[in-house]
Automatic annotation (TrEMBL):
SMART domains: AAA
Gene source species: Aphanomyces astaci
Record-stated family: Belongs to the ABC transporter superfamily. ABCB family. Heavy Metal importer (TC 3.A.1.210) subfamily.
Major place of residence: membrane
Name by which UniProt lists this protein: ABC transporter domain-containing protein
ABC transporter domain mapped to chain residues: 498-734
Gene3D superfamilies per the UniProt record, alphabetical: ABC transporter type 1, transmembrane domain (1.20.1560.10), P-loop containing nucleotide triphosphate hydrolases (3.40.50.300)
GO cellular component, one term: membrane
Domain of life where this protein originates: Eukaryota
Length: 751
């Protein structure tokens, strides 16, 4: 991918986590879903508030003509909750939800008028002393929910339009910053996005972890949570009792009620703290599991995928995504719609990472101004969207406060006449205070929605990126019950036999002919074979197929008569060593980078490998010798020094088959001669494949394979190919002429 492109949306196909399908959170689970969650929570409170009265009414031995007053509201509330859940997937069901709310209002209003028309004796006879108290809550919530639902539906439509506009702006920004941009859909191979259910599956370790100990902790946490909420629900009732006891001059009753109230509040706080302490171990274990799973998944993906991805995007998706998993768990029931703002934030980090990694390239081509302008443009886009988000946050807070206070006023206004009349209809001074406390307990968490807005946006967007990353299936996988590559003692003693049988291969997303076509050659055990050819002839493709970074489309790649596609990748790659032309080192010590070839090797073995690679003397001259840091990608070392580290690393691995991708191209003449002597001594017990650009380095190879446009043009020894006077002979003569011209250019002219 080129700089300026965002992370492509990936296909949800990871077999052990998700399957195809599901909707994106930005299309169906937005403001409407958030409102539905709030409404369903309110409905639960309504139904819980009616349970005490229902427990009495359901066991009264009578015809129960008053069933409507207690049972019908709760049945309608249940119906409304079902309808609103359906509304998440079909916005048209919102209209039906509004109809149900209107029906609830009509029934409750009719009940209120019917109760007012009853005499005190009729009310007491039918057991409806508290009916109005249980009608007020459903009535209040129904009005509030109706307003919320209409507001959310309108906001959902508006946000959809804003997202469409912002997405178009983002695509325009991508196009302007990238010349070689590619389609996100074609890069991913399928439709994008993940459903909320699939995102929850990523978070499974947080809710149902592995291991008995963690599961007991999780279940204990859930018990603490439920118990705390139940106690919090009953606390206002104790306050109401204490108020009524004070009015009745009942000192003992008031003291008992106040004690229960304080005890319930204290118990809630203690349970909340216990919940946090007990759950901490579960969160830590889940964090490690998700981070490890993500890191392992990245290493299981194909080389083709890594070549297409931008490092900045991948690092952000992994680091921020795993970190946000903890936040998503906390915000799960306060889900808000992610915005395009975080997409610009991702783009800024991607541009910064890419620019810093390619620092030298930028300096070589004096493109500092271009990079600064690209970064400045992204920052401006981010700031403009940040202002829009802050404005919407302010509007959200003001609207939220207005609705909450209006609902509180309506509820208390309905209760005031009954308190003043003291007609025994269920709302006394204690009930009035209880309603006030309930409203405060209910609405206080809603005030934090505005404060959590930005944090939830970051968490959801980062989690979505991580989920998209984990959705990708590895292109190259081991077959079920695949055996290890079988290497006997003879193979370790004299090398292995490598064979290409009629191999054809084309790179994904590239034109036909980009790889190999009907390639046939054999590398006998213990011999050296050289691959030569012009740039793009397919030399590097051969090494990638040997490592099985790709699977061939036709034919077979065999090692000791074993198809590489039928053995485990780990055993295959353990048998092959490579010294690449462009060596990339870890930002660790020299010792670490050499020992990386075999992490189980001793220090003496590392020293021996360094001596054979002719880098030991250089290491001893460093200020910290073996502990000297090599810098990012080994930039503190020269090209020749990095290649000698790579040679030492390969020697330490001690594989029976070694690929040298012009391993001495960056070395001076003296060092090159020393390395060639060391490699010649090692050829007695190894099979060697040398990818050569300078033909003089492979003159004594056992056989030379000449590639051209992905096909084998010639094959034989140096002398045989020179006598054939074909492609190889032409390349040899051309290099001799180029060297002669270069020598003539550097010779001083006679005055």
């Amino acid at each position: 991918m080129t700089r300026g492109e965002q992370q492509p949306l990936l296909t949800p196909t990871k077999k052990n986590l998700w399957r195809h399908g599901g909707s994106t959170p930005t299309t169906k689970l937005g403001w409407l879903a958030n409102t539905v969650l709030v409404i369903v929570a309110l409905d639960v409170v309504v139904m819980l508030s009616q349970l005490p009265q229902l427990s009495i009414v359901w066991f009264v031995d009578s015809a129960l003509p008053e069933w409507r007053y207690e049972q019908l509201p709760i049945l309608l509330t249940l119906l409304k909750a079902i309808v609103l859940v359906v509304a998440v997937f079909s916005p048209y069901a919102v209209l039906f939800g509004l109809v149900v709310i209107v029906a609830i209002l009509v029934v409750l209003a009719n009940d209120a008028f019917a109760l007012d028309a009853m005499t005190q004796q009729e009310v007491e006879t039918q057991g409806l002393e508290h009916a109005n108290l249980f009608n007020i809550l459903p009535l209040m919530f129904s009005v509030f929910e109706g307003v919320l639902l209409i507001q959310a539906y309108l906001k959902q439509k508006r946000r959809a339009q804003e997202l469409a506009t912002a997405k178009q702006q983002s695509e325009d920004l991508e196009t302007s910053q990238s010349t070689f941009s590619e389609s996100a859909t074609s890069a991913s191979g399928g439709k994008a996005g993940i459903s909320l259910v699939k995102m929850l599956m990523v978070l499974r370790p947080y809710f149902w972890p592995d291991g008995l100990n963690n599961r007991v902790r999780a279940m204990s946490t859930y018990c603490f949570l439920v118990t705390s909420k139940v106690l919090n629900l009953y606390a206002p009732m104790f306050m109401a009792r204490s108020t009524n006891a004070l009015v009745a001059k009942d000192y003992a009753g008031a003291l008992r009620a106040v004690t229960l109230y304080c005890a319930s509040i204290l118990a809630c706080k203690v349970l909340d703290e216990l919940k946090s302490v007990v759950y901490l171990k579960v969160k830590q274990t889940a964090y490690v599991e998700i981070a490890t799973m993500t890191y392992e998944h990245l290493h299981s993906l194909s080389l083709d995928w890594h070549l297409k991805k931008k490092l900045g995007d991948v690092l952000r998706s992994m680091d921020r995504g795993v970190e946000s998993a903890n936040s998503v768990v906390s915000y799960m029931f306060l889900y808000l719609l992610p915005t395009i703002l975080e997409a610009y934030d991702n783009l800024i980090l991607s541009l910064t990472t890419d620019a810093l990694i390619n620092y030298e390239t930028i300096k070589y081509f004096t493109n500092e101004r271009h990079e600064i302008q690209s970064y400045s443009s992204s920052i401006q886009k981010y700031q403009s969207n940040s202002v829009a988000v802050q404005a919407s946050l302010s509007v959200l807070n003001m609207s939220q406060a207005s609705i909450i206070q209006a609902t509180t006023l309506a509820c208390l206004a309905l209760a005031i006449p009954h308190v003043i009349r003291d007609d025994g209809r269920g709302v006394d001074i204690g009930g009035f205070i209880a309603i006030s406390v309930y409203l405060n307990n209910l609405f206080t968490p809603l005030y934090f929605l505005g404060s959590l807005y930005n944090m939830m946006i970051n968490a959801i967007v980062d989690m979505q990126k991580l989920s998209e990353l984990l959705n990708v299936d590895p292109d190259i996988t081991d077959k079920p019950l695949a055996p290890k590559l079988s290497l006997d003692y003879e193979a370790h003693r004299n090398g292995i036999t490598v064979e290409f049988q009629n191999v054809s291969f084309d790179y994904p997303d590239q034109n036909e002919g980009s790889g190999l076509k009907n390639v046939n050659f054999v590398i006998p055990a213990g011999t050296t074979t050289a691959l030569v050819g012009e740039t793009g002839a397919g030399k590097t493709t051969v090494s990638r197929l040997l490592f099985r970074f790709y699977d061939v489309h036709k034919g077979h790649v065999l090692i000791n008569n074993q198809d590489v596609s039928g053995v485990t990748q780990l055993s295959l790659r353990k048998a092959i060593g490579i010294v690449p032309q462009d060596t990339v080192l870890f930002n660790q010590s020299v010792l670490y980078n050499i020992q990386y070839g075999n992490m189980d090797s001793s220090f003496e073995q590392v020293v021996e490998a360094a001596k054979k690679a002719k880098i030991y003397d250089f290491i001893m001259q460093l200020p910290l010798t073996w502990n000297t840091m090599v810098g990012e990608r080994g930039l503190k070392l020269s090209g020749g020094e990095k290649q000698r580290v790579a040679i030492a690393r390969t020697l330490l691995k001690n594989p029976p088959f070694v690929i040298l991708d012009e391993a001495t191209s960056a070395l001076d003449t003296v060092t090159e001669s020393e390395i060639q002597q060391a490699l010649t001594r090692l050829q007695t017990n190894r099979t060697m494949l040398v990818i050569a650009h300078r033909l003089s380095t492979i003159r004594h190879a056992s056989q030379i394979v000449v590639l051209g446009k992905g096909s084998v043009l010639e094959m034989g020894t140096h002398d045989d190919l020179m006598q054939a006077n074909g492609k190889y002979a032409g390349m040899w003569k051309a290099q001799l002429e180029s060297q002669k011209e270069l020598d003539d250019c550097v010779q001083p002219r006679d005055e």
